[in-house]
What we know:
homodimer; 15 helices
Amino acid sequence: MTMQTPGTSTSAPVFSQRRDWAADNVVGFMMKQAVDHPECISLAAGLVDPKTLPVEVTRQAAERMLGDDSMARTGLQYGTTEGSQRLRDLLLEYLAGLEETSVGELGIDRDQLMLSTGSQQMLALLCEAVLDPGDICLIADPTYYVMLGTVTGLGARAVAVDADEDGMRIDSLEQTLESLDGDGLLERVKMIYVVSDFDNPRSVSLAVERRQSLVEIAESFSDRQRMLVVEDAAYRELYFDGSPRPSAWGFDEDGQTVALVQTFSKCFSPGLRVGFGVLPPDLVGPVRDLKGNQDFGSASFNQHLLATVLEDGLFDGHVEGLRETYSAKRDVLANAATEHLGDLEGVDWLVPGGGLYVWMTVPEHVDAGFGGSLFNRAVEQEQVMYVPGDLCYIGVDGVRPRNRLRLSFGVEDADRLAEGMSRLARAIRAEL
Amino acid sequence: MTMQTPGTSTSAPVFSQRRDWAADNVVGFMMKQAVDHPECISLAAGLVDPKTLPVEVTRQAAERMLGDDSMARTGLQYGTTEGSQRLRDLLLEYLAGLEETSVGELGIDRDQLMLSTGSQQMLALLCEAVLDPGDICLIADPTYYVMLGTVTGLGARAVAVDADEDGMRIDSLEQTLESLDGDGLLERVKMIYVVSDFDNPRSVSLAVERRQSLVEIAESFSDRQRMLVVEDAAYRELYFDGSPRPSAWGFDEDGQTVALVQTFSKCFSPGLRVGFGVLPPDLVGPVRDLKGNQDFGSASFNQHLLATVLEDGLFDGHVEGLRETYSAKRDVLANAATEHLGDLEGVDWLVPGGGLYVWMTVPEHVDAGFGGSLFNRAVEQEQVMYVPGDLCYIGVDGVRPRNRLRLSFGVEDADRLAEGMSRLARAIRAEL
């Protein structure tokens, strides 16, 4: 036995194939950028605004929960794999509110609603329950990059479907399915993933009529190959203009096609990591078995804390405040873009109706990607950081556009958003 | 499109092979038994005593954390995949205390300590990072049944190693390795799993000299096939007799062989689901990548709550109280066994020095297994429930003894423990 300094491993690797598939984590890499450049104004971080975090609301809920002996002990004890019945019942009501219907009309059993550690765990569990190595998940391009890692981390393949300003294009979905069928690959298509409201990275929503078409197309293939539509509605509550959209899940009349995944990370607190999925009945057992093996239940404490927030009517006021805050910050960022970049040919951006991001396109010859000239200039000279859009692309035919930027108005305050856009505009002009 | 009642699925299955491997969850099945028989005294539940849950300590910590604006916002915001640096630094000190050494002498970097959702998630991540379908994990038999599900849920194989009252037998470990080598299977042995302190289901600890031998054997094979020793120390703090044992991990001088996994579920609160792993340096990246894809971090709120408990010196007093409570309850259950079963030939039990369980053996012709006569009689006629020991066996050559019972003194109070043992004794006598 020889002594070695930790970190200087000479042992043979012992890793599974799954380990090899687990891609380098983009979120981790972006966080490292942020740590290495603390002086930067961050238009990169997909975090929620720290000033909006529900400190007072959580304090009130914790006080009631921990002041009630029985409620406290329930929260501190083990829960079940599927999560607190108390919270799941409250979430049926909550979901009915978003769908503008009643709990009865939702047409689901409480057991179909399962809690998870953020929505990411539910997305990962659904992928594990459905995707074998070599299977295909169709994804609107660009998309939420963590999901790409989860799909490829299982040895499965993400295949891009074109998207426009109304989300995934239905004609492109049909063409992609036909093309895969022509290649003898239709039987490998097990999943279609969409972020229906204010997606990451573009804050684009899937048009309501497309939601219905998407479900119908998936259903129409189900006698040849069942395809699970995974609807990620992480940003659903962050609409700036009146009311929530009906989900694609609501168009799934026989309840076999769509799994709806939501979270309280964006609309309440990411630190609690409470997400949930509404699953087709035959997915419930498999997903619960997988979660049983992985952690046999997310933190019961957090579930009861959030249940107390909902029960005590502390949630609605909080999320209304959030909408006002983010809406005002969207205006600041969009107005600053108009002020500093409005006259520039080939520089465009989407002004979103909700969510946390402004998606910007610069002329094709500008390299906004990682390691590219614009990114380096922005970070090193102008001290402003963004997420290079190329990270969010699968790429139709593998081509990932390098002239897109994801700009978040989540974290920084109004003054720094305006200043950040001014700096970014200088960097862009210098590249032209 | 046809309307269907939820639950009457006629769709084709869409499931991955992993789903097929995910065994029916024993914990879930036992919970269902408990729900179906609420009248029973439960010597089955592996829960901690609800009366010992740290309500007041948690209330104090929550008050300080949520009363400090900066600390509150950190807890309510996203954390990192590996978990809060604040808590991980505190856990280095905590671990040094258990190992009776200093943080410096631990010889590890903070980055080697990663937080998880309970220890179960860390066990599952380690299995995913290491085990491919067909790979082998050696396990002392009987063992923690959830781990069996996790191993087989990956398509890997659990192979039994004999254990006695000092835990895994080293001669049996060597014989098993030789025998697998003879079958050309040595290259599939990637992991050795041990619960080193007061294991589930027997509350037996691995003798200290065996800990060292175990590490040496794993190291001695590492030029042919690297084997990761996974040391599950979930019950480590629950010793009734003076002081914690040194871990097997402490004998791993080059730091490449053992992953130590601990949790605050047993010694503080299961509802917080805070566990951690101390990993060999080259496992850190792979495990973090896998966790990144699964949930990109456990709940930051809970990590900061527990950090506040540790910082404010609220932990030690709590766990000392726990040891007293469980030690007294062990005495009640063991004394009741002596009173009601002491004269019976072929009925024996282990009086543990820590943990939550008494392990009982009844004569071989008594069927104590699920669906067996004793279990049915105990539940239906005597209204007392236990965990049939056969659930905890892999079985050497697949033979699972059906004359063992796991009796927990975790949940019920002293009176009900005594009454429960009296009822169980009546059921056993009726079977003889």
